[in-house]
Amino acid sequence: MNIKAGRKGDAMKRRFTVAAVIIAALSMPLSAQWPRRPPPGVPKGPDGKVNLTAPTPRTADGKPDLSGIWEVSPRRETPGSAPPGRPPLALFANLAANIKEGLPFQPWASELSKKRVANQRFDNPDALCLPQGPLQYHLDPQPRQIYHMPGRTLIVYESNYGLRTIYTDGRPLPPPGEPQPYWLGYSIGHWEGDTFVVESNNFRGVEGGNPSDAWLDQMGSPFTNALRLTERFRRPSFGNLEIDVTIDDPKAYTKPFTVRIEQQIVADGWEMTEFICHENQRFLEMTGRGVQK
Question: How many domains does the chain have?
Answer without folding.
Answer: 1
